[in-house]
Amino acid sequence: MTLQDFLSFLEKNTETIIEYSGNHFTLVLSAVMISLVIWVPVGLLLTKSDKWAARVLGLANTIFCIPSLSMFAILVAIPFFGLGRKSALFALVLYAMMPLIRSVYDGVKNVDRNVIEAARGMGMSTGRILREILVPLGMPIIFAGFRITVVMTTGIAAIATYIGERNLGRFISEGLVRSNTPMMVTGALIISVIAIGLDTILGVIEKWIVPKGMRRKFEG
Fold first, then answer.
1. Given phi > 0 = left and psi -120 to 50 = alpha, else beta, which region is 28?
2. How many domains are there within the chain?
3. Residue 138: CATH number of its domain
4. pTM: predicted TM-score of the whole model, two decimal places
């Protein structure tokens, strides 16, 4: 493949590239938002019971080990889901379960117990301790899990093309079938740009949310 071939493909398929990129981005965004609404509260609840935490995290790890193509195939076989976005969204939300719950659970659990006891001694309620101490102090780990989830979801979303999603994964799958290198490179390159772009944006947001001293301690 030459640079001219690549640029020619981009020029001839601009509208399709924009359409697939938009579909890919909205699928990732929807999956991440739904996952945050579901799994972050679950992760916080699990910090109250180590027994239930072990069970749920074990289930999450099992789901995470299922190959993505197999997961999509299973969901397509269920009448309610079938081909298309429902199956893709549900699968991506399931895959996000492990990194999100794990990061929230570990982030809260890694907070110094002495700090919590001191807060209780000052008369702080459980809810206030959670909001003002546990979540803020656990934010470096929690946010790291969030960033991993976003990048992972961006990549796995490409596999959804095999169940009817018209996203960037279609360039890769059809490019393989046609031995069309510019098509494959276009899909892979844009997916990479989206993943890197989202992670960069989240990195900037993390600097606003997580205090500098806590970032250094976590990175160290």
1. alpha
2. 1
3. 1.10.3720.10
4. 0.85
